[in-house]
Design a protein that fits this description.
The chain is 70% helix and 6% strand. The chain is mostly helical.
């Protein structure tokens, strides 16, 4: 189990033991869990349906203009 630069848990292996370890880690370390919740809140603010639709629209438009 590794923590990324935003404090999230990253997996190289989606095995049951690895996921179990991560869950137990979060249960034992409420401070880490709370930090992850706060980080996710800030990440989610930038990921709205409007933002996603805008990125897709501009990506498709850019591709169409190059064709």
């Amino acid at each position: 189990m590794n923590l990324d630069d935003r404090g999230g848990i990253m997996y190289a292996d989606y095995s049951v033991p690895a996921i179990t370890e991560a869950i137990e880690y979060l249960i034992d370390r409420s401070d880490v869990h709370e930090g992850m919740v706060q980080a996710l809140y800030h990440v989610c603010k930038d990921h709205t349906w409007t933002e996603r639709a805008s990125r897709i629209y501009h990506g498709v438009r850019s591709y169409a203009e190059r064709s």
